[in-house]
Amino acid sequence: MATEVNLEKVMAKLDEKKMEELANFLDHVSTLNEVLGKVAQLKDSGALDVLINFSYGAKSLRDALNDDAIQSIADMLSNMMVIAGSMKTRQKEIEDILANADALKDAVMRLKALKDSGTLDVLVNMSYALKSLRDALNDDAITNLGNTIGQLMDVLSGINPRSAEGLKAILAKAPELNEVIKRVLELKDSGTLDVLVNMSYALKSLRDALNDDAITNLGTTLSLIFDFLPKGLEFLNSVMRPPLSELVEVLSGEEALKVLSKPENVTLGKLITLMKDPDIQRGLGVMMGMLKVIGKNFRP
């Protein structure tokens, strides 16, 4: 069934403004045909799908760009413009950096290796220590350090090869030297070192005093002592025999000392009275017996 177009109804709906728009549309029909042709070409080449997907991406990006995001992008662009402006004035330096890009890359790789191994932290700490040392080295400290180094150089310059070998031997024995120094410090802290020093001074004084005459006299004295010593030991052995040792003990006792300190006056009558005492009689017997032994063995 064919559709009938009522031109009167269509013309009734088209007022003067719509007629003008329709006339304008008809004027651009050729342009519209050309646009449709381009769109057909884009569709055939697949570029139309790319444009549509790009428009979706742009729409999603527009939806994600809130005020904070836009402000951040603006700040980034501003910073980039500042950097670009500074790079424009230092173009020669940037060209030098780009020309040495390989060396810069190698330096960065080495720096990364130092950081991974922990060496970079050691170097940084050493740099801080060196800076502190530099700050501490005022004029007086530098002068003192220079004097110390000068004295050290004088000492080193005075070391001949033989002395150098001896110094090497001393350094090789450093643990033993440390142990000796530790023991000397212990002697010093305990006061023993002072005693040893004083004894050494006394021995030195004794050695200085022992001249030839003193050594001769000392030898003679020692010779006499050695000659007398056997006879003296023999006499002491005899004296220490039981009867004589008892007699010595009696004579050195408290009672004998008391009698010797305050002896009594003995008259002839007192003597006759004392002769009746058994102890006196026994004492006289001992004395008479000893007198007999002495008289018998003494031959001038």
Write up what this structure looks like.
This protein has 300 residues and is an all-alpha fold. It folds into three domains: 32 residues; 101 residues, no CATH class; 81 residues, no CATH class. Helices cover 87% and strands 0% of the residues. It contains 17 helices and no strands. It is rod-shaped and about 205 Å long. Keywords: Coiled coil. InterPro entries: DUF1641. It holds the Pfam family DUF1641. This is DUF1641 domain-containing protein. It comes from Metallosphaera yellowstonensis MK1.
List the helices and strands and how they pair.
Elements: H1 7-13, H2 16-27, H3 29-45, H4 47-64, H5 67-89, H6 91-99, H7 101-117, H8 119-136, H9 139-157, H10 161-172, H11 174-190, H12 192-209, H13 212-239, H14 242-251, H15 254-261, H16 268-274, H17 278-297
Low-confidence parts:
none
Strand element count: 0
Helix share, percent: over 70%
| Order of SSEs | HHHHHHHHHHHHHHHHH
Structural class designation: mainly alpha
Radius of gyration of CA atoms, rounded to a whole number = 65 Å
Oligomer: single chain
Protein name: DUF1641 domain-containing protein
InterPro entries: DUF1641
Coiled coil: 87-114
Pfam families: DUF1641
Summary keywords:
single chain, 300 residues, mainly alpha, 3 domains, 17 helices, rod-shaped, DUF1641, DUF1641 domain-containing protein, coiled coil
